[in-house]
Amino acid sequence: MYNCHKEITKFHDDEVNLNLSQQDSMRNKRNANRKKLENGLRENASPKYVKVKSQGSYAMRTMVQAPNNDYDIDDGVYFKRSDLVGSGGADKAALAVRQMVCDAVQDSSLKKTPHVRKHCVRVEYNDGTHIDIPAYRLDDNEENPELASTDWVRSDAQDVTEWFKDQRRYSADGDQLLRLARLVKAFARSRESWKGSILGGFGITVLVCECYSSYSGRDDAALYYTLQKMCNRLRVTLQIEHPVTLGTFIADYDDSKAKKFRDELCDKFEYLAPLLNDNCDDEDAAKCWNKFFDTDFFGGGKKYASGGSAVRKAGGTGGYA
Question: Terminal CA-to-CA distance of the chain, rounded, Å?
Answer without folding.
Answer: 37
